[in-house]
Amino acid sequence: MIFLGMTAAEAAKRRAELTKSQHPFAIIVTCSDSRVPPEIVFDQGLGDLFVLRVAGNVINDHSLGSIEYAVDHLAVRLIVVLGHQRCGAVKAAKETIAAKGKAPAHIQSLVTAIEPAVEATVNGDLEATVRANVKNVVQALRSSVPILKAKVDSGELKVVGAYYSLDTGSVTFLDEK
Fold this sequence. Notes:
By secondary structure, the protein is α/β, with parallel strands linked by helices. The protein has seven helices and five strands; from the N terminus they run αβαβαβααααββ.
């Protein structure tokens, strides 16, 4: 297997380096949508990013534990919550909530997690809800105790939201307000 921009020899050398330890510089919390591969979106290589992917880029205790591990044990100092254009999970949540229905099986857990963004953008379009969902996850991470909030408050950790355009391939960092 050859990684983007690497020869087979370079890729083998990089894999060998990573068998000893990892030092990602950022955590990316993003959607599991196959059209949004963080390493490609941010032009990064093997070992550069600590990536968590779940539909709708929502977090739960398991993902939060992974994030805390990366911050506490790997000394990662940047978290990027990356939503994207035409997110199917956010669209499904909007439709399910509008119909006053329930999604099947465990999909309902995604709807429940995205519901505050849907409620905050009742008259907004899908993209406004995607952005609101990103901002909600950013706020949840910034206020998560005991590890993340303390690091954010001390300035050791930055948590930012971003939006990926499927149409253009560009990333826009969201205003923190």
